[in-house]
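go over whats below:
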Amino acid sequence: MGTLVSAGVSVSSLRSLQFRTAKMQPIKSCEVRCLRKNENSNGLISGPSQMELENHNDTEMFQESFQPPDRELEMKNSDIWKLFKDAQRNILYLNKQRLMAMEELNKTQREKQILIDRIEKLELGKQANMQQEKPAICSELLLRIDSLVLTGMISKGEASNFRRLVTENKVGLLDAFSEIWQKRDSELLEELHLFSDESKRKAFHVIHICTEMAPVVSVGSLGSYVTGLSWALQRKGNLVEIILPKYTSLDLDQVKGLRKVEAEFYSYFNGQSHGNRIWTGVVYGIGVTLIEPIFYLGLFNREKIYGYSDDFERFTYFSRASLDYLVKSGKQPDILHIHNWETAIIGPLFWDIFVNNQGLGSTRILFTCHGFGSQCLEKPDKLALCGLDPSRLHRADRLQDNSKRHLVNILKGGIVYSNKVVMMSSIHSKSRIIRSLSHGLEPTLSIHKEKLLLAPYGLDDTVWDPSKDKHLPAKYSADDTKGKTICKVALLQQLGLSRHASSSTTVVGCIYSNFTDVDIENLKSAFRLASRRGAQFIFMGTSKVESVNTALELFKKEIKDENARFINKYDEALLHLMFAGSDIMLCSSFLDPVLQVPLKAIKYGAAPVDITLNSNRIRHSMDHDLESTRSSQYIMTTFANMSLSEALDQIQSDPSRWDWKIKEGMSKDFSWEAECYDVHLGAYTSIMNV
């Protein structure tokens, strides 16, 4: 107000303005501009900017200044609508920003989880590598010690002491010899001397002399057994080595760091000394030695491992050469572990020739037999080829065959000349094997019954375990089986069976390789029975028998069923998914040490069912005594006497009981480190106390 007065507006005019303003509607603000005095105005406003109120009356001035009420309301509504639109745009913008922020947060969380998973995987890998490095370093040290003694850098006595040092002091080896592969022999020898004053716990030094080792060379159950048991022994702190023939068909890519040792050694055969080359390497952290004859290259330069008329000469040469190699290298293992008839001759060779004269007095012999069907009967005079005395051994209490007395039985020699004998069986009891499955060796087994042990085959749980199987879309265990349902859905979708399936559909798997024509007929009956009850079938594999393959092809054409699929090859990933997605796995036999279908089925939550068994057939006989293994007792009493019809009945009528049975089986430990390891460790301990 003071500004207007100073601008030359009269007081009466101001009063009139106030009175009229009070009677009118609110008006929009108007702009009144005043000029400060300047040098020409003498303090008064002048010029074109001066308010010339005197030329207009007050009414006309305010009519021009104020808006009419209806126009003002329209403008207000327009402003409000504009504000609403602006607010709506702001809300949409804020929502968009919020969604982007949430997406960014989710992305960050996913990346965080990926990093956590990678860290866990790296940590597990680190632990696994550490577990593998320790045995690998032990094995590498033993092989380097062999090289040191063969090249003359150390004596056999020093070599023996160093081996004992490595065997008994494995805890600190990882730190002390972490760069062993890069060290020269002189450097390694110096470190061995520095390490020799340390004292660690006792462990067994076991040397397998055998003809198979998976994955280097494996024909039957022996190869996986040697590798599985050896790995289990080393993981438990023992030291294991393996001696094999150097077959030309060996998968030498499986032998890490394979190298030929420059020094050679001689072995006795057929009245002469013959040179041999030594190759060394590491498989799964286990030291492997390959013996290659120099002058008898044809012994192992063949397409097959077994099945030749001179197999006795081939494997007798290898057995004698293995013992000569132990003497030459100064090895003094606690246990010599021999297998089947192919290396059974080591028993009489060891006790008749080597034990008293070659510094092996503290070594003991363990003989493993994977079946008594193959025994190797030969004329007695052939024993002289490897330095044995035929007249001394061709006796009823030694190698003379129980039926064909004019021949010697090499497998029998392994039983008689070993401190302990381990019979491998997944289902049979000791008394059943002696009574019914000894193939003429019952008198020998009965005499040596006290040193007979029974062990089950193990399962490689680093490969066959649904809780860590890399081939499965979802992992699961006995404690949480939700992932098995996901695996079933994935299996049915992959094979195009999902459109005919429901949540209650029973999936029956079948893997065949040793099937006979009779098995095919049983398979057809099983299929007809289960398909009528809504089950879906998945078949995988091929047979080695052409007639069986032909019968399978006819069976496939005959059924033309939308609820069955045939996979005519072994697909590793699909095989794992098949075990995980099936409710039942059909087996041609529960004695299956090669494919191990029953063990894998139980571990993956599928019931193994014998296709030869139905409700009207006689059940499997079972010796309910303490001479059976724990695992075989469980398998035989729980699954072996259950027909397919009974399994389908339990699944449909009592699902809760069925689930309990399946989870109980999944919780069992069938690995090599379980009962199989316990039996062998007990055998080693027992014979070392003899």
User: Anything to note?
Assistant: The chain has 23 helices and 16 strands. Residues 1-57, 59-66, 126-132, 615-624 have pLDDT under 50 and may be disordered. The longest strand covers residues 256-269.
